[in-house]
């Protein structure tokens, strides 16, 4: 079994992004950040033909994010998650997409705290692992602080003690999911106030976090911080998480060492039928902000989908990048000299 979860720093569930390959890669950078799956619906788990709960044991601590609103189905799926060894099950009460609303889950459930509470009760009766909730600060015209506290009151009374709050409200009518990530303003103070009002609850914040200094600032007021898109575009932001927030003094891998550490996994997954691009696409941002970062991205993008490509996709990309960095350093040295 995995280590006990420390929820201080986590990586957000992101549809089409945080699959098992992405999580394995991120785990090579941080050993302690809590990783979330993409949202998986109860219907997919109960009726789907694929194995929607599969993951790599190296991913721990890892949480399953579940989409649904039927207490019986949610409890059944939570039980399956526990059998698989997940460290936590999280209920999605934040996604604003039409498809999710039509399935009666995601952010629209903020208008139905009693439904979420019923799911919590059923799930906790089924499992011993934590059952948590990820929500928004409000939806549509239900966006007053009192609306948020009522939601928290009702759900917490059912036994949930951990909430991850995206500090934007969601417009369910008139804005796309993409617009909902940027258009409604971030209201960090509202999440801080929530922690003051509910000191016994574990409250984490999500939304707009771009640096570890941002994380440190929010931790002055809250129990945890969840980082989303910034991790995907700049995954090496996690490199100092273990040292800085978990008192783990392990030597930080260089970006090149992270690449090399991925080779056995890529080889293993190729043998199981995966294509290198399925993994490499999550690594495009590894050298963001570094000399040669564009060369790295371009090489992977241009060669990743070719037929019969193997682990040399990564080794060749790294060689091209390191050569470019060497030439840049030599040029700079000559200019100074």
TrEMBL record:
Active site location: 95 (proton donor)
InterPro entries, alphabetized: Aldolase_TIM, DUS-like_FMN-bd, DUS_fam, DusA, tRNA_hU_synthase_CS
Keyword Nucleotide-binding appears in the UniProt entry: yes
Top class in the EC scheme: oxidoreductase
Site entry (Interacts with tRNA), positions: 92, 178, 181, 294, 297
Binding-site positions, FMN: 13-15, 65, 134, 166, 206-208, 228-229
Keywords for this protein: Flavoprotein, FMN, NADP, Nucleotide-binding, Oxidoreductase, RNA-binding, tRNA processing, tRNA-binding
UniProt catalytic activity: 5,6-dihydrouridine(20) in tRNA + NAD(+) = uridine(20) in tRNA + NADH + H(+); 5,6-dihydrouridine(20) in tRNA + NADP(+) = uridine(20) in tRNA + NADPH + H(+); 5,6-dihydrouridine(20a) in tRNA + NAD(+) = uridine(20a) in tRNA + NADH + H(+); 5,6-dihydrouridine(20a) in tRNA + NADP(+) = uridine(20a) in tRNA + NADPH + H(+)
EC code: 1.3.1.91
Family matches, as HAMAP family: DusA_subfam
Protein name: tRNA-dihydrouridine(20/20a) synthase
Gene from which the chain derives: dusA
